[in-house]
Structures are given as C-alpha cells and as structure tokens.
Amino acid sequence: MTFVKLSAALVAGLLWTGMAVAQENVPANDQEKKTLEGTADKGGEAGSGQQTEMTGAAPASPPGAEHTADVNQELEIRHDTVELKEEDWPHAGVFGTYDRAALQRGFKVYEEVCHGCHAAKYLTFRSLADIGFNEDEVKAIAAKYEVQDGPDDAGDMFQRPARASDRMPAPFPNDNAARAANGGALPPDLSLMAKARQDGDNYLYSLLTGYADPPPGEEVAEGQYYNTYFPGHKIGMPPPLSPDQVTYDDGTTASVDQMSRDVTQFLSWLAEPKMEERKQTGIKVMLFLLILSVLLYFYMRKVWSDVH
Question: Domain locations in the chain?
C-alpha cells in the first residue's frame, strides 16, 4: 500500500508539472483587463522629462533624481492606464504555433527598420533557419554584415564578413555611441522585449500602431511624440513605421498595421525560439501522465480487491 500511495503522489506532482509546462503561454481570461503598467527602463522610460520605449531621446538624470522620477512616473501611470489592443496571435495557447511567413516578414521589418537603433544580441544568423530561411538565404543575410574577429598573427583585431554562426552585430559599437546618436537615450536590446513587458505581444503591437495627434489641450514637448498606449502617452521614439516602408518578398502589402503584426511575431519568436518544442513536450508529458494515472488506478483497484 505504501508503494501505491507513493506512486499516486508522484503522479500528482508530475501531472502538475506537465500542466504548467503545457499551459505557460495560455492567454489570460477574456474578462481580465489588459492594462499598461509602469515599468522603469534605463533606456529612457524613466527620466527627468522624457520617456523612451525601444528608442528615444532622454537627458541623463542628475544624481539622486532617478528614484524620485520612477516613483512619480508610477503614480502618474496608475491613474492613466489604457487597455491594450487584443489580437488573436497564431502562437498563443497550448496548441499555438508560429506563422513562418509572418516571422520572415517580421525579420525584414526588424532588419530594415528596427536594427538601425536596436540590437538583438541573442540572434544568431543560423537560427534564422528555424523561421524558414534556407541555408543559402542565411549565408546571404549574414554576408551583408561585418563582425570583429581576431587577434591575427600580429595580435590585431580585424573585420571580416559575418558567417552563419555569428551573432547579428549591434548597430552601434558601444553604449556611449548609441546614446550619442539618440539624444542621450540608450535604445534597449530587443532580444527579450516581448517577454520584458506585461502582455508583451499586445503591448508591442499597440505601441507601434498607437501614434496619434495629441488631444486638444495636451502639450507634447519638442522631441517627444504622442502615443495612445505608451505609459504617460509621451514617448521619445518617433513613429518608426510608415506605409510601404519595406517591400515584402511575398507581395504582402506593407501597411503600418501589417508590419506591426509581423515584427511583433518576430520579436515574440526571438524571445522564445523554443516555444513550439516546449509545448509539444508538455502535451506528450500530459498524455503520458494520463495513461500512467489510468494504469495506477486499476493497479490500486487490484491491490485493494486482494485486501478485501
């Protein structure tokens, strides 16, 4: 009997683990509000007058003012929350998978638009094969960039064309250069941006499509822009997308909404490239535990029948 009890406890524990693995990305209840919450970001989201999401311009805060600015921003945002746009993403839910065509289009938007300011330090060229690019296409994409290598025989570092095994180089050689080119603000790395924000996919999509003229009476300082979905509504990043800004290889019309959807899906994959494998593993674990539970149940019935 002790064996049966231990087996039942083990199955219960494994079942709980399997459910957590399989359901990690299940969307929240439809009744749950999708709201923006203030998240201070060193790249300029909290500062002394200007805010930055993804990129922008924010002067450095004087010593001792950062904490006060963070608190003031949080209090302001609590009274000015906005519901995000809710989209039915193909990769959402237990059985969701990535749309490879959308991922390839999203990479094109990132490469031609976002990469001008934002790095993706965890993106290797060879990983692009996972979203549908063949070996020759991956090599061609990598060959457009140069990376630092070395030292050579003389002990010097040198530049060479990138290979598939290399990471995609950052747009700036260092953080100081990035700040100098962006008015003092450091554009955040986008590798994990979809996971770094609450309801990340809807947040990114809403942010990219949320630029608008300020309402009457709303003042926006020079160098800032009004965004309906950004905390505080004033953002240092100018509207990054405009119609037909890129030319899709599959002929899809490059509207602002389409490009926003595509790059959001690409950033979601970039933040969790093994999501599909994780979900498949979770489903297999659930099926295994279900069968094991049935077998243990009948085994328990057999043991108790012998006792009585």
Answer: 2-123+173-276
